[in-house]
Structure formats: structure tokens, C-alpha cells
Design a protein that fits this description.
alpha/beta, Cytosolic phospholipase A2 catalytic domain, 2 domains, 8-stranded mixed β-sheet, two-stranded antiparallel ribbon, 16 helices, 12 strands
Length: about 400
Amino acid sequence: MRRSLLLLLVLALHCPAQTPRPRPKIGVAFAGGSALGLAHVGVLKWFEQNRIPIDFIAGTSMGGLIGGMYATGSDAAEVEHFIAHIDWNEALQVSVPFRHLSFRRKEDQREYPNTIELGFKRRLRFPSGLSSGQGVSLLISRFAAQYGDLASFNDLPTPFRCVAVDLVNAREVVFDQGSLPEALRATMSLPGVFAPVRKDGMLLIDGGALNNLPVEAVRRMGADVVIAVALDLPKPSADELATLFGVARRSLSVMIIENERRNLGLADLVLMPDLKGITSGDYLRWPELLERGYQAAQQKERMLAQFQLSEQDYRQYREQRAALRRPNDIRPELIQVDGSLAPRRREALINTIATDRNQPIDRQKLEGELTQITGMGRFDSAGYTLFRRDRSEE
């Protein structure tokens, strides 16, 4: 008896202790699809309820917007609350809201209500989009203004990438550093709808034409497992294809469908919400879209269960995200206005922003002032962002 007990002890002493295997790093790629992209929020909601961590995230167009919002440290409930309180008609409005127009421009609009604005700088110029994107820019700034100076998007609570297309060089651009609001505005620049973003000699539009589902971008970030959330774009009706705009939109959709099909094969797991009966313009049906995204994840529950964390590990994961989150209330120490603004208007704008340092900026008041500036007709858009000053340079 002693001999066998001794043998067992010796074996136990010589067996190396088994170290727990590190969990796989999980990345998520969100496809673009205008309003249909709101289904991504439902996927995030299911992941959180089932303790599935997201270590990396990337998206295009609306997929980039939702992914970017989550990457800033927001949880699914916060993203849903944000979506629920958006005035979509104003955010996506083609022109500046009538109440913010100057007196002269109000008179012009009353007299010529259905006109396209033209410009003249050495020659007659047509607009680069139906909308300057002012509403979208302000929308993005509400949750991302504090991330205007990132050395790397890996420094966000969840490392993030978003995709745009450079029209000048005909190439894909994957944003991984710099201004998060600018990157999100670029990936949201739907051709012909929102004006492109000009940056470093590039003319940037929605990345859907070349990469609507950035699976490879997530893989390059270091993901062991890539989960793609694809959106089945609806087929156009015969009436839609009978119009110039309908044909142009379908031409873009064909390119999107083709590149998305290639990327689906690169993912380890694909979620595809059932979006029948909903169109890419149905923003007001966001509750239904969230539910469809949630159900798409629920249908893959057995496959996703392998990535579920314990309650303790998931709590630690959430705490790590929260620790990297920057406060959203803006208390500026220095105000800088870029752009040739008249002295009186510049002073009014600064006075709007310049509050007691212990009090955050009234964003509603600031956005109203910026929108009034665009209503003068001299600027396509006016926005704001926050930069952190390096005190070593003072």
C-alpha cells in the first residue's frame, strides 16, 4: 500500500501543472447597408446578454458607425438609446433645416423650393452630394468628439477599423489612426447622397464599393475567430430600375454584393439577419431591425456558446473596456476656430463654447450655432472635435 502511494506521489510531483489555455481573440465585422445596419445593434445586445466578448471590431458605412460607437466603450443599451433618440429626418436631411437658414436664403427657398444649389469658383460647380453631411457629422460628434487625436485606433476601449474608398487613387482606405469622427464621416459618405470627405489629397466615400464587409481588416488586427454580420440587400423593383437614380444605386449594390460574397468565405462564422420586407431607407423601423439582428445571433447560439465567458471573466472584460473610455462631457481649455469666419460670428461661436471650465459644453447650443453657420451659405459643413494638448510642449 505504501509502495503504491509513494509511486502516486512521485508521479504527481513530476507532472507539470496544466496552465489554462488562453481564450481565442474574437473579432466582428459589420457590413454596410444604410438603415439595415441598425440590425447590428441587436447582435451586440445578444452578445452582451450571453457574455460573448468582442476583442476587435470593424465595419463599413452604417456598420462602421455602429461598430465605432461600440468601440468607444458604449454598451449595447447605450447604443440602442442613442439610436432611439436620433431625429433621422434631420440627421439625413439634404439641406440645412429651414429654421437655421439666413433671412436671404429663407427667401430664396420660399421662391425656389425644389432647386439644387450650385457654386461658382472660377467656374460653375455642381454639388458633390445631395447633402453636405452636416447632420451626420454632428451626430458622430455626439459620441466620438473626444477621440479626435488617436495615435492608433487600437487605443480605443475596443480596437477598431473602418473602411472608405479614395476616389482620387481608386483604392480602399482602412482607417486605423487619427480622428475617429473624421473616419466615421468618411465611411458614411454614401456616393451621391453625402459629400465626400477631403483628407490629405484624398476624396473619400463610403467603402462599400470595394469592401462592404471588412473581414480581412479584423483578421489583420489579431483576431483568432472572425464573426461576420452580413446584410442581404433587397432586390430593386422594376419601377426602381426605371429611374436614373435607381439604376445608379443598383450598380453600386452589385459591386457591394460581389465584394461581400468574397469576404463571407473568409469569415469563421456568418450571421445574416432576415431583413425581408425592410428597405435600406427604413430608419424609423429601428426597433424591428434590432430584433432581427438579435434573432440572427440567437439562431447561431450553439456555435457561439463556445466563446461564452464565465460571469467573473466577462465582468473583468467589461471593466477593462470601461477603464479605457474617455469622458464624453467636453470642458475645453483652449478653443480654436478653423475657417474664414467673420469676426462677429467667430466671437459668437466662441462665446457659445466658452463656459466655466468646471461645466461641460452645452452641445445642443453648440450644434445650433454650427448649423446656423452653414445656413449662411458660405460653408458646406461645420463641426467640432476635441484634441488633447501635450503639456510637455507648454
